[in-house]
Amino acid sequence: MRDLAAGGYHDRACPCCDGAAYRVPRRFIDVLLGVFGHTHRYRCATMGCNWEGNLRVYPVVSLPR
Ligand SMILES: [Zn+2]
């Protein structure tokens, strides 16, 4: 298990197989759901797993809008 606070903003662990998950563009519905929290959509890179879902991300840098 890796330390969540240590670098690696683009790779997360798959909650299903604990493999590497990469970020994918959010769909429209995800944008709507995104108002409830900071979540990004991830997909597992492990063959045979095919997990895909939203993972909460920590507000590392708050960009002013
Ligand atoms: Zn997986």
Describe this structure in words.
- This protein is mainly beta.
- It has one domain (11-56).
- Helix content is 9%, strand content 29%.
- It has 1 helix and 4 strands.
- It has a 4-stranded antiparallel β-sheet, with no helix packed on it.
- Strand 3 and strand 4 (52-56) form a beta hairpin.
- It is globular, with a radius of gyration of 12 Å.
- The structure holds zinc ion.
- Residues 14, 16-17, 19, 44, 46, 49, 51 line the site of zinc ion.
> CA-to-CA gap between the ends?
35 Å
* Count of spatially separate domains: 1
Which percent range fits the helix content?
Answer: under 10%
Computed CA radius of gyration, to the nearest angstrom: 12 Å
Record keyword descriptors for this entry:
mainly beta, 65 residues, binds zinc ion, 4 strands, four-stranded antiparallel β-sheet
